[in-house]
Amino acid sequence: MSATPVPAVPTLAVWSDSLLAYNFGAHHPMSPIRLELTARLADEYAIFHRPNVTLAAAEMAGDAQLETVHDPAYVAAVKAVSDNPAVVDEERGLGTEDDPAFPGMHAASALIAGASLQSAAAILDGSALHAVNFAGGMHHAARGKASGFCIYNDCALAIQHLLDRGVQRVAYVDVDAHHGDGVQSIFYNDPRVLTISLHETGTHLFPGTGFANESGGPGALGSSVNVALPPRTGDAAFLRAFHAVVPQLIRAFAPEVIVSQHGCDNHARDMLSSLRLSIDAQRQMMLDMADLAREVAGDRWIATGGGGYDVFNVVPRSWTHMLAIVAGRPIPLHSEVPQSWHEYVEVRYGQQAPLYMGDDADLWWRSWEVGYDPNDSVDRTVMATRKEIFPYHGLDPWFD
Asked: Which residues form the Histone deacetylase domain (predicted)?
C-alpha cells in the first residue's frame, strides 16, 4: 500500500461559495451542503492557506468553451430551462426527476465546468502541476443530454482543453460508484484519451452501462476500460481490482496528464450504491493516483469530486483528504475531526459528525500477482477487463 507523501508542488484549488448555486432543491440527493461542509473542513486544516496552494474563485465557462464537448443546441436548451424552470425537455434530460430545472441552472453548471477548465489551463501554463475542483466530477453529462445529476461535463471539458492545446495523451480514472458514461461516450473514438472506470455493475446500478466489452470505438480500440464490480464489493476487493488494472494501463499508455474523478458514493454509508468502501480506501486510491501522476505523467494531475450523498459523515472527510493529498501533505486517518467543525455541523444542521478522519478500516488486499481465483466474482470481472483490454496495450492479461 502506498504511503508516499505527495511533494508540495504548485497546486491550484478552485473554490468559491458561488459553486453552491448548483442546487436541485431541498429534497434532491445532490445537496450543496456537501460542498459547503467540505470547504469548511478543509479550511479547518488550513489547506487553502498552504504556501504551495493558490485558491482561485470559480469562473464560468463560456458557450464556445462548453460547445467543445456539448452540442450547441443542448447548451441553448439548458439556458432555456434555466430561464423558465417550468419547461421540461425530456429528450435532453432537463426538467426530469434526476435533473430538475432551477433558476440559474446554466450559470451554476457553467461555473462548475469553468472550475475544471481553470484547472486544465493552470496545468498547461505551468502555474500548477496539481489542480483540484471538488465541486466537479459531473461525469454523466453527454454531448447532448443531461443525466444523473450532471448538466455540463466538466471532466470532459478539461480533457478537451488539454487536447486542443497540444497534449497528446490524457488518462481519465473514475472510481465513482456509477459508471463514468458521459466521459466515455465523448471520447469513445479518440485514441488520445484513455478512460478507466471502476464502478458497481450496470446490471444493478444506474446508468446500466460500463461493461468490459465497451472497449472503445473503431478508431480507439482499447481506450475505454471498464471494471463492473458486483454489489457489496468492499475495500479489499475494490483495491485489488484497482491495482490489477489501473497502474498497468497508465504505465503502458504513458499519459502526459492524469484527470481523476473521486466520487465518494462508493462508501458503505452512501444510499445510492451498494458498494462497501471506507474513507480509508478512498484516500488510498487518491494516494495511488498521486503516485502514478508523479511516476508517469510528470506530476501533472487534475482531481475532481463527483457523486457522494452522505453529506455529513462521508463527503467532507473524503474530499478534504483529496484536497490535502493534491496539495502534498496528507491528513493522517487517525486525526480527530476538528471540534469547531463538529460543533458547527451539530448546531447548524442538527447532525452528529464523525469523530475521526478515517473509518479505522483494514486496507490489506490480495495482490493480483498471488493468483486469479475463478470462483471469486471480483476476480472474474477483473479478468474480463484484462482479457478485453490488455492486449491492445501490449500487456498479457494473465501476468502483467
From this structure: 28-325
Whether 287 is in a domain gets the answer: yes
Cβ proximity of 287 and 3 under 8 Å: yes
The answer as to whether 388 is a domain residue is: yes
Total domains in the fold of the chain: 1
CATH of the domain at 148: 3.40.800.20
In a domain, 2, yes or no: no
CB 299 within 8 A of CB 129: yes
Q: How far is CA 147 from CA 179, 215, 300, in A?
A: 12, 22, 29
The reported pTM is 0.97
Residue partners of 207: CB distance under 8 A and separation at least 6: 140, 147, 148, 178, 179, 181
**Contact partners, residue 84, CB within 8 Å, separation at least 6:** 101
- Whole domain around residue 321: which residue ranges? 11-393
pLDDT tens-digit map of 281-334: 999 999 999 999 999 999 999 999 999 999 999 999 999 999 999 999 999 999
Cell numbers standing for residue 311: 453529506
Structural domain contains residue 28: yes
**DSSP-derived 3-state class of residue 16:** coil
Residue 140 designated active-site: yes
Write down the catalytic residue from 140, 178, 199, 262.
140
